[in-house]
Amino acid sequence: MTKIILASKSIDRKEILRRCKVSFGTLTTDIDEEPYKTKIKDGFKLVKELAKQKVLKAKEELIAKEKKAIIIAADTIVMLQGQIIGKAKNNNQAFQILKSLQAETHDLITGVAITHTFFPKLIIDCDSTLVEFSPLSDDEIREYLKTNEWKGRAGAYSIMDKASFFIKSIKGSPSNVMGLPVHKLYQILKKEFNMNLFKY
Amino acid sequence: MTKIILASKSIDRKEILRRCKVSFGTLTTDIDEEPYKTKIKDGFKLVKELAKQKVLKAKEELIAKEKKAIIIAADTIVMLQGQIIGKAKNNNQAFQILKSLQAETHDLITGVAITHTFFPKLIIDCDSTLVEFSPLSDDEIREYLKTNEWKGRAGAYSIMDKASFFIKSIKGSPSNVMGLPVHKLYQILKKEFNMNLFKY
Question: Is this prediction's pTM over 0.90?
Answer without folding.
Answer: yes
